[in-house]
């Protein structure tokens, strides 16, 4: 299976040019103000207009007001909401009342209990990560307890993506810092990552 690839944290028109050339399956806009990859609503809307329509747009949120998330979905700035904070089942249910768009939920995998929480989530997809953009991998053996489709995140790079795919069978891969140089998206690193991720297995 060839996993989907989401390149996250795009924040500049130059990033969109790279994405349009290399065609990841999805890109992520980070709406968390504490992130160095943060983009304002207006910036994300401008970037979205530059992006090839076939590339899925995902908004990354941390404990944001559900109405704000739903607004960006309704405006068409993003097509998927990815929740990266402490959003619980009540939050997800409230957001579903406001939008029919897909909802993804990220989980920090540190213990078997974390894997069980990801398995039980009502989100449409789960994302298994090490934390809030730490750029570090986690103990991949914990993924054995997750039997639903998932995105693998956390410290993925062109150097370790083959190892990840030899060890696991993720539905998708989420990469950000691993395709950057000096904090900015790097064409060659993104190209290498996509080529290696898309090798048939």
Strand and helix map with partners:
Blueprint: E1 4-8, H1 13-22, E2 26-30, H2 41-50, E3 56-61, H3 66-75, E4 80-83, H4 89-98, E5 103-108, H5 112-120, E6 125-129, E7 150-152, H6 161-167, E8 172-175, E9 180-181, E10 184-185, H7 187-197
Parallel strand pairs: 1-2, 1-8, 2-3, 3-4, 4-5, 5-6, 6-7, 7-8
Antiparallel strand pairs: 9-10
Helix pairs in contact: 3-4
The CATH architecture assignment turns out to be: Alpha-Beta Barrel
Q: How many angstroms separate the termini?
A: 6 Å
Count of domains: 1
Instruction: State the name of the first-level CATH class.
Output: Alpha Beta
Please describe what this structure looks like:
It is a single chain. The model has no long low-confidence stretch (mean pLDDT 95). The radius of gyration is 16 Å and the shape is globular. It has one domain (4-197): TIM Barrel. Helix content is 33%, strand content 21%. The strands form two sheets. It has an eight-stranded parallel beta barrel. A two-stranded antiparallel ribbon has the order 9-10. By secondary structure, the chain is of the alpha/beta class. The chain has seven helices and ten strands.
């Amino acid at each position: 299976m060839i996993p989907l690839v989401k390149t996250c944290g795009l924040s500049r028109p130059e990033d969109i040019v790279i994405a349009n050339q290399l065609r990841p399956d999805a890109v992520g806009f980070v709406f968390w103000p504490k992130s160095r990859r943060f983009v304002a609503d207006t910036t994300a809307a401008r970037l979205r207009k530059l992006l090839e329509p076939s590339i899925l747009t995902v908004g990354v949120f941390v404990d944001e007001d559900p109405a704000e998330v739903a607004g960006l979905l309704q405006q068409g700035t993003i097509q998927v909401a990815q929740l990266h904070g402490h959003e619980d089942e009540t939050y997800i249910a409230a957001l579903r009342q406001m939008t029919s768009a897909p909802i993804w939920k990220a989980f920090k995998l540190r213990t078997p209990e974390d894997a069980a929480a990801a398995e039980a989530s009502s989100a449409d997809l789960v994302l298994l990560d090490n934390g809030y953009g730490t750029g570090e991998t986690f103990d991949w053996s914990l993924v054995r307890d997750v039997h639903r489709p998932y995105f693998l995140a956390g410290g993925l790079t062109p150097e370790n993506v083959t190892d990840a795919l030899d060890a696991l069978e993720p539905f998708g891969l989420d990469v950000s810092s691993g395709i950057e140089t000096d904090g900015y998206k790097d064409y060659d690193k993104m190209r290498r990552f996509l080529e290696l991720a898309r090798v048939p297995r």
